[in-house]
Amino acid sequence: NAGVTQTPKFQVLKTGQSMTLQCAQDMNHEYMSWYRQDPGMGLRLIHYSVGAGITDQGEVPNGYNVSRSTTEDFPLRLLSAAPSQTSVYFCASSYSPGRQTQYFGPGTRLLVL
Amino acid sequence: AQKITQTQPGMFVQEKEAVTLDCTYDTSDPSYGLFWYKQPSSGEMIFLIYQGSYDQQNATEGRYSLNFQKARKSANLVISASQLGDSAMYFCAMREENAGGTSYGKLTFGQGTILTVHP
Known about the structure:
The complex is a heterodimer of chains A (113) and B (119).
Chain A (H helix, E strand, L loop, with lengths): L3 E4 L2 E4 L5 E7 L5 E7 L5 E9 L2 E4 L6 E3 L9 E3 L8 E8 L8 E2 L3 E5 L1
Parallel strand pairs in A: 2-11
Antiparallel strand pairs in A: 1-3, 3-8, 4-5, 4-9, 5-6, 7-8, 9-10, 9-11
Chain B lengths: L2 E3 L4 E5 L4 E3 L2 E3 L5 E8 L6 E7 L7 E2 L2 E6 L4 E6 L8 E9 L11 E2 L3 E6 L1
Parallel strand pairs in B: 2-12
Antiparallel strand pairs in B: 1-4, 3-9, 5-6, 5-10, 7-8, 8-9, 10-11, 10-12
């Protein structure tokens, strides 16, 4: 198993550009989520999904879109990048039922100029 | 809403000594899970330990133990016999769960504590 994979590892964007951060997991996990980590802060939830075709907003959803067409993939779209979206983005997955931990991807470092 | 507070921005410990990292939480959910993650300088999030709110005993995982005091809403991480490789950022996190431990996987994180282990 590759676990949770994220691409790209690093990206530089100009203000106003759009891009998609990719996230995939091969563990057949139902639940997937996106977090952002800013300096000096913990991770904050952007969007999450409880299964294919079902998504919902987290704590900081503005400026981001998600979709979940398959169990494996959960891409995060930045519609019009802003400098405030400079951050490290983590994708995570977990499964139900039972007390299972979250599995995190390696992160994508995004710089918006 | 859930809230996690880690009041120690940084902690120092001598190699082979034990160290406690503090975590307090606030939630109105009757059932929840508490986590600790380690984030080394390389950036990945490494799961350390989990405690369910209905667990009768404190969780332990090797050198890591979680001092869970439900009435005080605290979930401190104890690292015994610190090693140089333990130097990292440590995050406390929680999620709402149902009585069976199922959740939607939504975690709320604290701000983190940077642990430095001195030789």
